[in-house]
Amino acid sequence: MILCLPFMMFQGRAQEAIDLYLSTFPDAKLLEIMHHPEGTEIFDPEASNGGGTSSETADHSPAASPDDTAAMETVVDWDKTLVATAQLQIGGQILMIQDSLVKHAFDFTPSMSMAVVVDTEEEFHQITTSLVDQGEYLMEPGDYDFAQNFAWVKDRFGMTWQINHPRGAPNPEDADSAANAAQAKAPEWS
């Protein structure tokens, strides 16, 4: 069986994101979480090569060892340690979440969004209000030709969410409804 899951990689803020998403989505469940031990080090490739020194010219002698520690950042002052892996379920969809142990220049991009279909206007406003706190709207909440209410939100972590309250909102009792799409199973091939 093939399973395709969104994988969200944070830079030291995965636990904060999990806490936000658990408080934002009414049906969100934390299925599993494992943390790295306290004191886990985050590797910074820029610091390890002197912010641009090529690997051929870098001094790898024992005398360079004090500089080697500049590439590591020890995490000891956080209440929670870094997230090694977590599974968060929202609307029947499982999201994989982790903190990267390597600092990187890339981040989330709006070209990839989580699409969330809601049943009620209240739920729409509660979710969008929570996600936009310290974030921004990429499309303001409103009535669009394709939705009764729609908003495209970039949250405080840079993750984008498209929240949709469609015209003729999903009916959980209707097997063909969008409300049941997330629970659909992958086909079994014989």
TrEMBL record:
InterPro entries: 3_dmu_93_MTrfase (IPR009725), Glyas_Bleomycin-R_OHBP_Dase (IPR029068), PhnB-like (IPR028973). Residues 41-68, 164-190 are annotated as: Disordered. SUPFAM superfamilies: Glyoxalase/Bleomycin resistance protein/Dihydroxybiphenyl dioxygenase (SSF54593). CDD domains: PhnB_like. Residues 177-190 have a biased composition (Low complexity). Residues 79-163 form the PhnB-like domain. This is VOC family protein. The lineage of its organism: Bacteria, Bacillati, Actinomycetota, Actinomycetes, Micrococcales.
